[in-house]
Amino acid sequence: MLRIALIDVILFALPFILYGAYVLATRGEDRDGVFQHAPIVWLIAAGCGLLLATMVTLVHFSGGKPGGTYHPPENVGGVVKPGTID
């Protein structure tokens, strides 16, 4: 669960990181107030769009077959075999 939360935080922050890197790379000596005139609404919208696209992709491409049978994890010879949906 922590992995998913960290991925969400990173994806939401990615537009802000890229914008900050772009502003720092294109400005000369004037590096004060990187986000002072930033398009915050557009950055938030881009972050939310990345989150939404990621969630839709994960829901669409992960999981088992619809109507499948769930088989819980098993301990086979001291090794845990993960659960599956057949």
Q: Work out the count of structural domains.
A: 1
- Quickly give the structural class: mainly alpha
Provide the β-strand percentage band.
5-15%
Largest sheet: 2 strands, antiparallel
Number of helices: 2
| Share of helical residues | 40-55%
Q: Give the overall shape.
A: elongated
Strand order of the largest sheet: 1-4
**Rg calc:** 21 Å
Oligomeric grouping of the chains: single chain
Overall residue-averaged pLDDT value: 87
- H/E element sequence: HHEEEE
Tell me how many strands there are: 4
* Separation of the first and last Cα atoms: 24 Å
Which stretches of 5+ consecutive residues score pLDDT under 50? none
Structure characteristics:
single chain, 86 residues, mainly alpha, two-stranded antiparallel sheet, two-stranded antiparallel ribbon, 55% helix, 12% strand, elongated
Please describe what this structure looks like.
With 86 residues, the chain is mostly helical. The protein has one domain (2-85). The chain contains 2 helices and 4 strands; from the N terminus they run H-H-E-E-E-E. It has helices at 2-26, 40-61; strands spanning 70-71, 74-76, 79-81, 84-85. The strands form 2 sheets. It has a two-stranded antiparallel sheet. Strands 2-3 form a two-stranded antiparallel ribbon. A hairpin with a 2-residue loop joins strand 2 (74-76) and strand 3 (79-81). The longest helix has 25 residues, at 2-26. It starts with a helix and ends with a strand. The model has no long low-confidence stretch (mean pLDDT 87).
List the helices and strands and how they pair.
Layout: H1 2-26, H2 40-61, E1 70-71, E2 74-76, E3 79-81, E4 84-85
Helix pairs in contact: 1-2
